[in-house]
Amino acid sequence: MSQLNPRQQEAVRYISGPLLVLAGAGSGKTSVITRKIAYLIQQCGFQARHIVAVTFTNKAAREMKERVGSLLRGAEKHGLTVSTFHNLGLNIIRREHKLLGYKAGFSIFDDVDTKNLLTEIMQKEYAGDDGVDEIRQLIGSWKNDLIMPEQALEQARTPKEQTAAVVYIHYQRTLKAYNALDFDDLILQPVKLLQDNPDVLEKWRNRIRYMLVDEYQDTNASQYLLVKLLVKERAQFTVVGDDDQSIYAWRGARPENLELLKTDFPSLKVVMLEQNYRSTGRILKCANTLIANNPHAFTKQLWSDMGFGDEIRVLRCRNEDAEAERIALEILTEHIRTDRPYSDFAILYRGNYQAKLMELKLQVHKVPYRLSGGTSFFSRQEVKDLMAYLRLLVNPDDDNAYLRVINVPRREIGSTTLEKLSVYATQRELSLYEASAELGLSEHLSSRFTERLARFKHYMDKLRQRCFGDDPIAALQEMLLDIDYNNWIRQNSSSEKAAEYRMANVQFLIEALKNTLERDEDGELTIEDAIAKLVLRDMLERQEEEADGADGVQMMTLHASKGLEFPSVYIMGVEEEILPHRSSIEADTVEEERRLAYVGITRAREKLTLTYANKRKQYGEVIDCTPSRFLDELPKEDLIWEGLDEAPKEVKQARAASALADIRAMLSKG
Ligand code: ATP
Ligand code: MG
What we know:
By secondary structure, the chain is an alpha/beta fold. The protein has 29 helices and 18 strands. Helix 2 (29-42) crosses helix 3 (58-71) and helix 16 (381-394) crosses helix 17 (399-405). The protein binds adenosine-5'-triphosphate and magnesium ion. Magnesium ion (MG) binds next to helix 2. InterPro entries: DExx_box_DNA_helicase_dom_sf, DNA_helicase_UvrD-like_C, DNA_helicase_UvrD/REP, Helicase_Rep, P-loop_NTPase, UvrD-like_ATP-bd.
């Protein structure tokens, strides 16, 4: 506690009512949460299992868990929940799925599944999937605002909204028929459940006696309602946030929730923190100057005594190639010159598409890196295949999964057969899986095909039994052999190397599943739960981190960097149309982009470098770029502009460094 300043201590000690800590970046909000969890357990007699802390991303949850973990002894933390909103929702659904009308082993549809299903529905209902992304966005925002399909239809005004509402109805119905939930349902369904069932609500309120929420400014309506429902009356909670870091309006986040809190909880106590412990004075000055261009509901003073620090560098590069090259070489040089680990460096960007070239350059110069987000592990073919098998095992109603695996590997079951099966199943209100061994099928299909379908079903039935037995992992390994999956991958890969890589992914997934099962302390996790968890990526990301504890430059989007900090930060593509993003310029929502830039800048502890390109290739065309307006908004006296001219010298230096690194690597290999 003595490590905290008086305001922070006050925030930690205040437990007699609802508390909001409203403060700028790096002022120790997250630190207050982690300390407070320890305080509640060690000083106030709370049991860990009565405490729930929620945060925004898996990465943030993981970090928080680690920080709390180091403050507590083993037994003290037993049963403590530190998770994302989605994981909390999943936990509630797992225990109450019956009341919600879901069977155990429900599936969770990820973004790709969701889009596929919507496309399918639109093709069926509207003979085309035009504007599917927009419709998906609309449905998502309805769900985040707790608007149910029928309501959506009632209040739909434009033709687009009407279409979306009709699709929403079909979509929700189909999900239910598949015994599946999408990501938004993970919050929406628990909220509905708690609203409709007072006794269940009571139970959860008893279980959760103290709640803490980090990054509160980014909660959307349904997340806020979930918190409100769970804490009501007793109102034992602490939320921390910063309105200047609200960057998820596009996903329904409501920074107004900060003000709403005061209305909903009149006894709310507000603590403001003003000292920043993260960044140099100069970095902080830049951040403050930039964000002063936005209107403010709350005035915040933020200062730091970390020394004024180096100038902020702005690198002007010839084109995007030179930009990525420059960053890679600089980091390499710095790493060698200062002996700083690579993990001290972060490269942040507005969109994942910017990462590709950057990755390439880092690879060329043999700079190790770690990429968060981006092409997700779960969008890879082989991972989707195996996941579909897993989903079908735990949820035989998952028609999507059925269709995905039925011909992986080839079982000579053609589309006509599947269509007939589908018609038959629909008529009898059966899942494809159930229908596939029905005797009645033989009226529609020749015995050759009914046998193939039945064989597959019998195989899966047997496999299911084994999976629910003592050793699900062994059963899955056997399954891979049974279906000769390695061979299938080989046939469908461009090279042996690609095939090996893909097989490693499959094993990685099984390994992840195994770890989830083993890590479960209470022994109450079933294989269904383990799979559901996997889909939430939480554990896989953790896996990745653990698997390569190796040093690496951290690459991620600005959005994903929220809450994190790094000694040296590069923000690339600081240009009009990138940051601020083109769509925000068009929609006149540049303020949110400014907050995003603010988030990026305030990640840096000591060094900050902003880069932009003069020219950039876009859709095969070379376009001229304009430096971002945000650069003009920064204090001139604190910036150093490095133009195109300096580049060659730097590049030469860095080339030398690159060669040196090669030699070192060779030497270390022996
Ligand atoms: P963000 O808004 O970016 O999420 P935050 O307000 O959550 O930031 P923290 O991440 O909790 O800030 O803290 C920023 C840094 O300051 C961390 O490295 C933390 O360890 C350190 N810190 C927090 N409080 C103190 C303190 N009282 N004394 C010294 N260091 C502190
Ligand atoms: Mg934080």
